[in-house]
Amino acid sequence: MASSLLQSSLLLSKFSSAAAAAASSSSSSSSLPCVNIPTGLTVQRLNNSKRSVVLRATGIEKALNDLPGDVEKVMDNVEEALTPISEVKVKLLSIVAGLNKGLTANPEDMENADVAAKELEAAGGMVDISENQEKLQGRWKLVYSSGFSSKTLGGSRPGPPIGRLLPITLGQVFQRIDVFSKDFDNIVELQLGAPWPLPPIEATATLEHKFELTGSAKLKIVFEKTTVKTGGNLSQLPLLEVPRIPDAFRPSSRTGSGEFEITYLDADTRITRGDRGELRVFVKA
C-alpha cells in the first residue's frame, strides 16, 4: 500500500497547487475548479464534508462511477485503469498456464481465471467483427476451458467421458477457422490406451462445423461430422468418419450445435463465452 501512496503523491504533485486553490475557495464558491492532466484524466475537488476526489477517464467506468472518500483508493483505481492491455493479458495467460487447459483447475483456479478474463475483456472493450471477420482466420490453440472441469472433452458440450469408456489422454486442442468457406473445426489430439505390451494409439479427432455470424461478435456453429486420423505406427490407416447418432436418439442437450460470443480479440489472443457458460481462452497457433 505504501507504493500506492507514493504513486498517488507523484501523480497528485502535478496539480497540487490547483487542488489547493480549489480547497481554499470551496467554502465561498459553488463552482468546481478543474485541472487537465496530460494523461487525459480530469480531477475535481467536490464541495462536501469528505472533500472527495472524482476521477473521470474516458472509457473507464470504474473510475467514473466510484466516488471514494480517500485519495488512496482513487489512485488504486487509476493505476488499475491505466495498466497496459499487454500486462492484463500476460496476467490471464500466466494464471491458466499451469492448469492443463483447465483439466486440473479447482474452483479457486476457475474463479481467478474468470476474474482475469473479465479484466482483459474490460480493457479491450466491445468486440465487433461484423466488418472484419478476417480477424478470426487461422488456427487457434486452446489454453484454457472452464468446461474441462466436468472431465469431458467438450466440457458441457458433447464429448466422450475421459477415463470411463477408454483410458484417454487428452493432448492439444485447436480451432481451425476459415472465414471464406465458413468452416469451423475443433481438432483434438488423443492417446488411447491399449493392452500391454502394445503402445498407446495416437489419434486426431476433427469435429467439423459450419459457422455463421449472428451478431457483431456472436457466432453460431452447426455440427456436420467427426473424422478420426490415427498417427504413430498406425498413421497409414485411412481417415475414419465416425457415424453420427440419429437425431431421434440424440439427447436434446447434445444437438451438436451451439452459440458463443467473442468477448476479446486481438492478433494473437481470443476469449469466448459460450451459451452454456464456458469460458475459453485461445492463442494463435
TrEMBL record:
Transcription is among the record's keywords: no
Q: Which GO terms describe its cellular component?
A: plastid
Q: Where is the signal peptide?
A: 1-20
The protein's name: Plastid lipid-associated protein/fibrillin conserved domain-containing protein
Q: Which InterPro entries match?
A: PAP, PAP/fibrillin_dom
What keywords are assigned to this protein?
Plastid, Signal, Transit peptide
Q: Name one Pfam family in it.
A: PAP_fibrillin
Keyword check for Cell wall biogenesis/degradation: no
